[in-house]
Each structure stands twice: as C-alpha cells, then as structure tokens.
Amino acid sequence: MSLPEFKIAQLRHFVWVSELKGFHTAAEKACRTQPAISLSIRDLENKLGTVLFEKRNAKTSNTELTPFGQYLLPKAKELIAHHDNVALDMALMSEHKTGHLRIASVPSIACRVLPELLTKFIVDVPELHISFYDDNSEAVLRKVEKQQADIGIASLPHEHEHSDITFTPIWEDQLGVVCRDNHPLADETEVHWKALRKQRLIRNGTSRLLEGTEAEPLLSNSQFDISNMLSLIAMLEAGLGITTLPWFAFPNDNAKLRFIPLTTPKVIRHIGLVQLKNKSLSPAAQALATFILHNTNKDKVPE
Question: How many CB atoms lie within 10 A of CB 236?
Fold first, then answer.
C-alpha cells in the first residue's frame, strides 16, 4: 500500500479554505492567487484519492467540506501544529535559545567564575535547560569523552592520555600550599617543596599537577587522599594536615586557612574549554563557548 506524502503547505491551504469558507479568502491569507490555491487542493485530493469539498452551490459562496474532508480537518490541524512546534524548536535550538545544555567543570572555576558568566549568558536564553556537574579535571574529561557533557571546563596536564580532546586554554593559576592559619608555614611568603617532606600531606584531585616535577615524591608521601573539596577544606580547618591547591581552588574568604605560593617548583595550571575532537558542539554549547571566550579576560593570578 502506497501512503500519500503530505505537504504542510497543502494542508494549510485545506484548513484555510475550510475555516474561511472559500478559496478566494484562503488565497488572500496565503498571499497566493485563487487558481494556485485551487491547484494545491486538487493535488492534495489526488494524493488522497477523494474530494474534500462539496461542489459549489451557485446560491451560496460558501465552501463546504465533504464527510471525508470533515474527518481530515482535525487531523490536518494536528499535523500542522506538530510541524510548527518542531520547526519552532529547531529554530530556537539553532539560535541556542532552547534545548538541553550539559556542562561539566572543575569546582574552582564553577565557584569563582561561572556564576557571573552563566547569569549573563541565560538572560537571552530563558528557555534553555542547563545541567551542571562539578568534579575534578579527570572526571570532567571522562564526562566529555563519554558524551555525558556537551562541553567541559578543566585542565589538561597530560594531553597524551586524552588524544580525543580539544583544549582551548583560558585561565591560569599557580599552585600553592594550603594550611591552617596557626601552622608553622602560615607566615611564609613562599615555599620550597622540600619544606613539605616532613609535613602530614593530604592528596586531592589537583595533586597530579605535581607529576613530572621535582616535587613528585610528595605524592607518594601523602598520608591522606581526599577528593571531595568540602571534605578537604573541613580536614584542613581541623588541622589534620596540609595540601597543595591551585589559587582558584583556594577558598580565599576562609579566615582559618592560608595560601602560600609554591615557588620551587613553580607550577602553573592552565584551565580551559574541553570538547571532543571531530565532533561539532550543539548550538547551545557552541554559543556558551563563544560567550565565555568573548566575555573572559585571560584571568591570571598576579605573580
């Protein structure tokens, strides 16, 4: 059985002729000539194999539907409404004004930078639904690689481990030592890594930044490993030990903790946008990436 393929324009003409009770008024609404509307309806009838309008009565100018036409009318309206809704959704999505955007970011940028940026970004996209995930860089990269996030914000210290990722650097900060305000190191202005060897060290998600540097032995000497930032801060406040953190990850409004730059070695973390290679971003994700790049200075911790 061969099914008819409907043209939305023909269905619109059919509905307008029916509702406006005439080909002439329907032609005016469609900005077409009356013969063009008649031809459109005739083609639709040929596809359906039946007539849709009763033969005109010379005594009246109104156009009446046949029983088949009356049956088709609500279904035609339903098809047109569905088409228009899909077309509108696609138009809005292409303009990044609707849809679902999934972002994954390291907590430091999520707390320090993104609130202001996203507040400005969503002004023009009130219908856009955004899911947000914050985790360490490795977790962010995995989410992007598994396509669980459309776009990520993270550091990429070991590019060879993520050859399928494209990295666009935006921010940078320096690694430092974080300790309680009454710790012996708290009053120092800078720290050499060897001064940390006899301290109780807490490893965290950013500790991999020390890999490949002369301070790498500190990683194996860490007594604790805490990945959750809230838990890490609580342990530092309690004086359980000290840790290394990039500047953006340090809660600088915390009166109990101190940040001392690690100057030997001097480790700079580069943070930026990450996405899959050879895969286009969704319109919303591309719009966000462009917005971030255009509205972000190359933030950098003063040296």
Answer: 25
**Distant-in-sequence, close-in-space partners of 72: CB < 8 Å, separation ≥ 6:** 14, 48, 52
Beta bridge partners of 191: 262
Class of the domain covering 100-171+270-295: alpha beta
What residues does each domain of the chain span?
A: 8-94, 100-171+270-295, 173-268
State phi, psi for 280 to the nearest 5 degrees.
-70, 145
Find the angle CA(287)-CA(157)-CA(202) to the nearest 5 degrees.
115
Both tokens assigned to 272: 């930026």
pLDDT digits (tens, 9 = 90+) for 180-198: 999 999 999 999 999 999 9
Beta bridge partners of 100: 129
Please give the CATH superfamily to which domain 173-268 belongs. Answer: Periplasmic binding protein-like II (3.40.190.10)
> CA-based angle 36:37:40, to the nearest 5?
90
Q: Indicate the CATH number of 8-94 among 2.60.40.10, 1.10.510.10, 3.40.50.1100, 1.10.10.10.
A: 1.10.10.10
pTM: 0.68
Paired tokens of 227: 């990945």
Q: Considering only CA atoms, which of 16, 80, 7, 82 is closest in space to residue 45? A: 7
What is the percentage of the chain residues whose pLDDT exceeds 70? 93
> In which residue are the tokens 């998600």 written?
205
